[in-house]
Design a protein that fits this description.
12% strand, 12 helices, 7 strands, 3 domains
Length: 300
């Protein structure tokens, strides 16, 4: 683990991350557009180093999670406002876009890290590299995406999919703990699947697999009814929930959501059959196995 890759906690989290991703110093809005481009596209410093727009919390954390696809930082922000602000800056290019209340986590892939580029330049020059040839070395280095782009898992701290604790049959404290386990494993599953199965990307299928892994991590088993509740499905009908976050367009939206809900219901019933046949499986291994079953989704 490098000095950059260290576990962080409390109010040191956001300042440490802003040193790596200085766009966090910006407030979302059109007035920040040019500064955002200068920071992200050209590696320039932020005009100010204030994080006053974030609340911060003693319970914030950044922990490096080991997965079959490698290590990924898992950032947990206790304040919902901080979570939304972080997404607006990093994922929405510093625009104040609304974050759905049912979204409590995200896996951000491809975040430019100029710290890595500058560190490589220093090493290149230290070992005798020609300063006049740095532009060529820069192109060679950045031709490999993993050299300078990061994956980040960002989590909020509320109930998973905005489902109240009483609907799950747990105390609020127990449900918050389980929600964190579901979110962390869910987003790390996205990280794994994007690395191992990039050609199989499908937004809703990815959510089904990641939720299954998350539920297994939190409860040791798969609960189909709870998985359907997360997405807002009652049997084969859509009744309101996270599923609509993954549907594009506005035409015939309710009809399309009902059709998608029926497809999801049948797929999750198939998951139940698979889990019964497989027996206990570790969450990330479960996700990898389920990816082999994507045909059951495409055929419905």
């Amino acid at each position: 683990m490098t000095a950059e890759e260290r576990n962080l906690s409390g109010r040191e989290v956001l300042p440490a991350l802003a040193k790596i991703y200085p766009q966090l110093y910006l407030r979302p809005g059109p007035e920040s557009a040019e500064d955002y481009k200068a920071i992200v596209q050209r590696g320039q410093d932020a005009p100010t180093h204030s994080l006053a727009h974030f609340l911060g919390h003693d319970g914030d954390s950044c922990v490096y999670e080991g997965t079959p696809a490698g290590t990924v930082p898992v950032i947990t922000l206790q304040e919902r406002a901080d979570f939304e602000l972080f997404l607006q800056i990093i994922a929405h290019r510093c625009m104040p876009d609304a974050i759905p209340p049912t979204q409590g986590a995200s896996m951000l892939d491809g975040v430019i890290n100029w710290t890595k580029i500058r560190a490589h330049k220093e090493e290149y020059l230290r070992t005798g590299g020609d300063p006049d040839a740095w532009s060529d070395e820069f192109e060679r280095f950045t031709a490999v995406r993993s050299n300078y782009r990061d994956a980040l898992v960002i989590l909020s701290a509320g109930p998973y999919s905005a489902v109240p604790a009483e609907e799950v049959g747990l105390s609020p404290q127990e449900w918050l703990k389980a929600s964190h386990a579901i979110r962390k494993t869910h987003e790390c599953t996205h990280f794994i699947c994007r690395r191992f199965f990039p050609e199989k990307k499908d937004a809703v299928w990815d959510e089904l697999v990641a939720d299954a892994a998350g539920l297994t991590a939190a409860f040791g088993t798969f609960d189909r009814q709870l998985a359907e509740r997360f997405l807002g499905i009652d049997g084969e009908r859509y009744v309101g929930g996270r599923l609509e976050n993954y549907l594009d367009g506005t035409n015939d939206r309710q009809e399309r959501l009902n059709e998608l809900a029926a497809k999801v219901h049948k797929t999750l019933c198939h998951f139940e059959e698979l889990f019964s046949a497989w027996g206990p499986v570790e969450p990330y291994e479960l996700a990898i196995r389920l990816e082999e079953e994507i045909g059951c989704w495409k055929q419905r």
